[in-house]
Specification:
Elements (H helix, E strand, L loop, with lengths): L1 E8 L5 H16 L3 E4 L2 E6 L2 H14 L5 E8 H5 L7 H4 L18
Antiparallel strand pairs: 1-3, 1-4, 2-3
Length: 108
């Protein structure tokens, strides 16, 4: 089991580019990704076939501008992630389980 991490840098100089960037972020949320940071989204991928399917979905919603990168990390690597932030300023963020869709509910 692992995680597909989607990192992107999309231009927002024109209104059209802004629309494409917002649409891409919304599409990621609609197909079950979780926002880790503003331009870093993640989704659980149980198998290699699932990872391939998720990447195919990303090609389908590709905004056609900027840079979109995908990185697959194992669950063990995910657990080693260190989170460093000022909790006084940002607090501890809670995930709303209602935002999860479909199969992800099986894993939480």
């Amino acid at each position: 089991m692992g995680w597909l991490v989607v990192l992107f840098d999309l231009p927002t100089d024109t209104n059209e580019e802004k629309r494409k960037a917002v649409r891409f972020r919304n599409d990621l949320l609609d197909i079950g990704y979780l926002m880790l940071q503003y331009s870093v989204y993640v989704r659980c991928a149980v198998t290699i076939d699932k990872k391939k399917h998720l990447i195919a979905e990303l090609f389908a919603i590709n905004p056609g501008t900027g840079s979109v990168k995908c990185l697959f990390i194992t669950d063990a690597q995910w657990e080693q992630m260190a989170t460093i932030c000022d909790e006084r300023k940002y607090g501890t963020r809670k995930v709303n389980n209602k935002s999860f869709k479909g199969e992800q509910l099986q894993f939480w």
